[in-house]
Write a structure and sequence with these properties.
14 strands, 12 helices, 16% strand
């Protein structure tokens, strides 16, 4: 059997590709929105939703229920054996990485990173970072590295982790033709402009006043009937002029529908480099909105460029006129 651990929408294209190449497969996730999408494509026997286990300092006050949930998940997956297991985790993923570690006892493990972190992420020796790294090891048995970008901590899986689970490089690449055949009767949406939003204010990337002003200015210049809004899976709040345009269901992955649009516009989402790599006009608004942190903004630009193919183009316009020109270029 083939087992695929899919934790993010970013990994769904490769998950569908791998599943299509194997008659006997099982998709495992703790991401309810991803599971909801997979339930549109596959039978209940082919997908498994494991419970979320959120571990925080506050949550540790209820440590007994956390340990009970952990034991329950281990019992549920421990019997899988002689299977090929594929996963794509990068950072902030100790729980699913632990799932893979449990599976590695009786199965072959294949790995491909879902994305690459920004080059500007550096090592940190902060107390908070050391405490998180120590907890990850002693509670989950997972080795992570300590990284930081403009006071934001990252904890990517370390090379020690991959050595312990004896992971091999996943040789499979995304097959867009296979994906199209799988979803063609399930996902039907398309148009001129796909506008991706969500999390910009909540994550303190742009102040609300700046976001409101420039969002409203943008939609004042765009024929609203040509735009579809797709919010991030963890966001269900359309803001300001975004409320005027039709919205695509949150559980539909943006990277599966961007080929149905001429132009893809967003802030820092990975779908932008996926659209650019697919030959679409991909526009990031990182320079259009005034950021609360230049370093963080520059880190996201680095991240998007680092994942964009050398022969493809991802645009970072700084003015509304530049954005309009890029959209008109495709007309």
């Amino acid at each position: 059997m083939t087992i695929i651990l899919c934790q993010s929408f970013l990994s769904i294209p490769l998950t569908i590709t791998i599943a299509a190449k194997n008659e006997n497969f099982l998709i495992i996730s703790t991401n309810r929105e991803a599971y909801k999408f997979f339930s549109q494509l596959y039978s209940e026997k082919e997908i498994v939703l494991l419970p979320e286990i959120n571990v925080s300092l506050k949550g540790l006050l209820n440590i007994n229920s956390i340990l009970k949930a952990k034991r329950g998940v281990k019992r549920r997956i421990a019997n899988y054996s002689k299977s090929d297991v594929y996963f794509f985790l990068v950072a902030f993923c100790e729980y699913p990485a632990w799932i893979v570690k449990v599976l590695s006892n009786k199965n072959k493990i294949y790995y491909k990173a879902a994305t690459q972190l920004p080059n500007s992420v550096t090592k940190t020796d902060s107390i908070k970072g050391i405490l998180h790294q120590t907890f990850s090891y002693y509670f989950w048995g997972i080795n992570v590295d300590r990284k930081i970008l403009d006071r934001t901590l990252f904890f990517p899986l370390s090379q020690k982790y991959f050595s312990k689970i004896n992971s091999m490089l996943c040789p499979i690449v995304v097959d867009n033709e296979v994906i199209e055949n799988v979803i063609k009767n399930k996902v039907r949406v398309g148009g001129k402009i796909l506008y991706l939003s969500g999390g910009i204010i909540e994550n303190n990337l742009v102040c609300e006043t700046e976001f409101e002003l420039k969002t409203n200015q943008f939609f004042d210049r765009i024929p609203l009937e040509e735009v579809f809004l797709k919010l991030h899976p963890r966001s269900n709040l359309a803001r300001f002029a975004e409320k005027k345009i039709p919205q695509i269901s949150s559980f539909i992955p943006a990277n599966l529908i961007c080929n149905n649009f001429d132009v893809v516009i967003g802030y820092n989402t990975a779908t932008l480099y996926e659209a650019a790599n697919g030959g679409k006009i991909a526009i990031s608004l990182l320079n259009y909105f005034e950021p609360l942190s230049d370093n963080k903004r520059n880190g996201y630009i680095d991240y998007l460029r680092n994942n964009t193919k050398l022969d493809m183009k991802l645009y970072f316009p700084s003015s509304l006129e530049e954005v309009i020109q890029l959209i008109d270029f495709e007309s």
